[in-house]
Every structure is written in C-alpha cells, then in structure tokens.
What does this fold into?
Amino acid sequence: MKLLEGKTAIITGASRGIGRGIATVFAINGANVAFTYSSSAEAAQRLEKELSAEGVKAKGYQSDASDFNQSQALVDAVVADFGTVDILINNAGITKDNLLMRISEEDFDKVIAVNLKSVFNLTKAVQRTMLKQRSGSIINMSSVVGVKGNAGQSNYAASKAGIIGFSKSIALELGSRNIRCNVIAPGFIETEMTAKLDEKTVQGWRDAIPLKRGGSPVDVANACLFLASNLSAYITGQVINVDGGMLT
Ligand code: NAP
It folds into this structure.
C-alpha cells in the first residue's frame, strides 16, 4: 500500500521548483494531485501529464494564492473535480529582496500577500471540507530565513515567520478535529533558479552547510510526504527544518 493511496492533495505553486518536486513524490506515493500555478501554463500541462502517468488523477489550476476569492473558487473546483481534499500544501512563494532603505511599500505588501495571506486564504478555504471529514494535514512552506532572519530579506522573513505563528495557532484550533498543521523550513534548495547563480558563490554556501551540499526539491518533498501521511499522525504544530543542518 502506498503512503498516500486514495488521498487528494492541493499543492500551490507546483509548476516548478520545490512544489513540482512535491507533486511528483506525492503522485509516486499514490496521491491524487490538484496543483496551482501563477502563469506557467505550459509547464503545468507537462506536469499534469507526468503525474497522470503515475496512475493518479492530476490537474493544474491557474489561481493566484494571494487572492481570497480565487482561493475559495479553487477549493470549490477541486472538491467538485476530486470529491475531497485531505492534504493542503501551501508552497507558493516569491522574493523581492532589498535592504530596508530601498524596499518599497509595494514590494513589502506583495511579498506578504503572496507568501503569508495566501496561507490564510487556502487554509480557510479547505477548513469546511476537512472539518466535515474530521481529518486533514496542512503543511506550510516557511524558510530558515523565517526562523533566523536575513539581512536584505525583511519582507520575506516577516512573511515566513508569520507562517509559523499562523500554523501553530491553526494546530491549536483544529487539533480536536484531527486536522494537523505543520511547517517546513527549507534551507538552501537547489532549483532551476539557483542553477543560474554564480557557481563560486553557490559552492561557498554548500561548504557552510554541515551536510556539505544544497538540498533538492525531493529532500523537501520527502519531509512533506512524512507530514502528509499517517506516519506523522501524532505530530502537529511543529516546524521541521530541512536545511542540511544549517541552523544547528
Ligand atoms: P519557485 O521555483 O520560484 O516556484 C514558485 C512557484 O510558485 C511557481 O510554481 C509559481 O508559479 C508559483 N507562484 C508564484 N506566485 C504565485 C501566486 N501568487 N499564486 C500561485 N502560485 C504562485 O520557488 P521555490 O524555490 O520552488 O520555492 C517554493 C517555496 O519554498 C516558496 O514558498 C519559497 O519561499 C520556499 N523556500 C524556497 C527555498 C529555496 O532555496 N528554493 C528555501 C526556503 C524556502 P509560476 O511558475 O506560474 O510563476
């Protein structure tokens, strides 16, 4: 029996990077996958095909996670298409890095909306379905930067720290209904995006990590698999760092 057999997951921001890795690992482990993207329609179609080849139901939806009404409409559509929602992974996120002196009000608000308000939007939208079935696992993607802070990323750090406070509160509110809510805080994860960075700089980052390498989307996806499955049935309100020991 596969770990997520018969479960339906919503994963936001899965057209590339970590979200794509989670969608793939979930499909391999038997989950039906509803995923979202912001603008990468072609990549989403490719992913839909790849996931379906694993013998599960898979569908991509263009939906802006920072928009309250779109998030509600998305969950309604997923429930109509898939019948239920067992797992929610709030993964969609952006950066607009700058020093405080240079950061604009618009860039602060945008990062909070896409990274933090989105988590509120989607969690609220799935709540009714999960309450009805008296079970659910919600996994929110924070960052080591949300735990520790980072110069030049005050907007991003605030959004990611906010996710931790929100998630612990939801764990307390919904625990009695068997709905769990946990956080993953990835460190440096190597994706298509980081492949474009200067190799020497990236090697410096790798050398500073106790496990001496950057993480992969699969490293994060495996932690999500654990938190989504019944293997973690007694775990809620926790933050799991997936960072190669970076914050140790
Ligand atoms: P990424 O490669 O930039 O992918 C971001 C994904 O989010 C894309 O699928 C994108 O869709 C989607 N997205 C962006 N804005 C959205 C919106 N408003 N509504 C719905 N979807 C939206 O990012 P990543 O590196 O995989 O990171 C994924 C998550 O992990 C983020 O929350 C990030 O903060 C967190 N994280 C990443 C790292 C790292 O080292 N990579 C470290 C710590 C935490 P489109 O393709 O359509 O634009």
Notes: The mean pLDDT is 98.
